[in-house]
């Protein structure tokens, strides 16, 4: 099992380098990231099981440590000795989280440099949820590159945005080589139409939901497929979603199948919706 790390106090300016990044608003709620976590456990479970050091990072967990606590519980259903390090740039939040530390769960002061306390240690997962929304779009690629460089060879970076209680969520999955996929996920009972997810696009895409951009075309086609699947609403919103995604997959590179669609998800290749000039 990976070594357990002790909470790291805020470094003094005279003795340590300042963490990279800026503090987020810190708002969070229990169970907010459940959709992302379930997807991670399913999509990245094999890599977690074969990892020699199954450590994951909850980057920018916020004013309360709930998301780190929950991530550990969900990953341990896949790998019993998985460990999670919650990383926060605000030292006050690290101190507030310290009482929740236990075997396999620790908290560290830091930012995009992703401190893990042991030289050469690389996480098999970095999850950064609702972190980059405050940054400029032009800075996203550099942050992604920095975080990807910290990953283990078979590691995964998952970066995205959700609403306050986790009903709507969109995230990008990236390997060490670059972005791979984009996942759109929703609590189907609260979804009016697929375009409702547009406001939760991650920073790399949210300003590109305009005519001429691929993500705008994708959401337009998804809306048309949703309208075409209206008769399936008689059998429930889940059946309507499955029918709409099945129709969408005829023209878009959907990489998952009905088992994930039933969860209110659809995942497409990054290249299909990437911003122009990316």
The helix fraction, in percent, is 25-40%
Under CATH, the topology of the largest domain can be stated as: Rossmann fold
How many domains is the backbone divided into?
Answer: 2
Class from secondary-structure proportions: alpha/beta
CATH superfamily of the largest domain: Vaccinia Virus protein VP39
Question: Could you explain the architecture of this structure?
Answer:
- Keywords: Methyltransferase, Transferase.
- By secondary structure, the chain is α/β, with parallel strands linked by helices.
- It has two domains: 1-9 and 17-176, 3-Layer(aba) Sandwich (Rossmann fold), CATH 3.40.50.150; 188-272, no CATH class.
- Helices cover 29% and strands 18% of the residues.
- The protein contains ten helices and eight strands.
- An eight-stranded mixed sheet has the order 3-2-1-4-5-6-7-8, sandwiched between helices.
- A hairpin with a 2-residue loop joins strand 6 (168-175) and strand 7 (178-186).
- Helix 1 (34-43) packs parallel to helix 3 and helix 7 (214-228) crosses helix 8 (237-248).
- The N and C termini lie far apart (39 Å).
- Residues 1-15 have low confidence and may be disordered.
